[in-house]
Amino acid sequence: MKVSARNQLSGRITKIVKGATTSHVSIDIGGKVITASITNEAVDDLGLRVGEAATAIIKASDVMVGV
């Protein structure tokens, strides 16, 4: 699969926490962990499992953090 996003970080899934409609999928990228919020349906469709390889693909116009 080809995608236009340039920010692609490969790693291994360390945790999947399913909520009512959304799951949080954590991917270890060389000792750092990135967590993505995706639908439960996407987790099932992709067949995501802890320990498997996955790529975090980041395509965003901005990132906001507040304190």
TrEMBL record:
Biological process terms in GO annotation: molybdate ion transport
Alphabetical list of InterPro entries matching this protein: Mo/tungstate-bd_C_term_dom, Mop_domain, Transp-assoc_OB_typ1
Record domain Mop: where: 2-67
Gene3D superfamilies given in the database record: 2.40.50.100
UniProt keyword Ion transport present: no
Keyword Mitochondrion applies: no
UniProt keyword annotations, A-Z: Molybdenum
Protein name: TOBE domain-containing protein
Originating organism: Komagataeibacter rhaeticus
